[in-house]
Amino acid sequence: MIGTLRGRLSLKRPECIVVETGGVGYEVSVPLSVLSELPEEGSEVFLFIYTNVKDDAIDLYGFLDENGKKVFKSLLGISGVGPRLALNILSGSSVEDFLSAVETEDVGLLTRIPGVGKKTAQRIILELREKLPKTGEKKERAYEDTLSALVNLGYKKAHAQEVLDRAYQKGIREIENLLKESLKYLNR
User: Fold this and answer.
1) Most buried by CB count within 10 Å: which residue of 7, 30, 73, 79?
2) Which residue segments constitute the domains of the chain, with CATH numbers given?
3) Where is the Helix-hairpin-helix DNA-binding motif class domain (predicted)?
């Protein structure tokens, strides 16, 4: 089984990339949220990999962090949810939004994802509610919203997180103040 993959991003297209390492190009399916966070072709990438072995193929699914991989694996444990639907679910919402929808039993958010009907959404909530980490265990929503705003403004996620963490450590918790403080660092 392949657990992680580090190499040069040689091809980047919707839901699928090719990572070249040791002279071999590995085709990796990724959620759209991961695709948008990846650097340009030719850059080095590091992904957490879920390996799916079938009778006729070995498929690789890539994630930027272990949490994304964990949620993907949890989705696969649900009856009626295969790798393609799980990938579609994580493409249709961020991991944080998905976890929040499960925690708050938000069937509406889940059914907006193509391929997820009401019964599937209810099954996902029922089976994952106790298994997945609570969103309350993560940083407050203001942190996530500010990070999203910085990324939408064109800053790389890793750099934006670093700067946002500084502001957050100062005790700033309101979105507008977090954004102001972060932009102050980023525009230096």
Assistant:
1) 30
2) 4-63 (2.40.50.140), 67-137 (1.10.150.20), 141-186 (1.10.8)
3) 73-92, 108-127
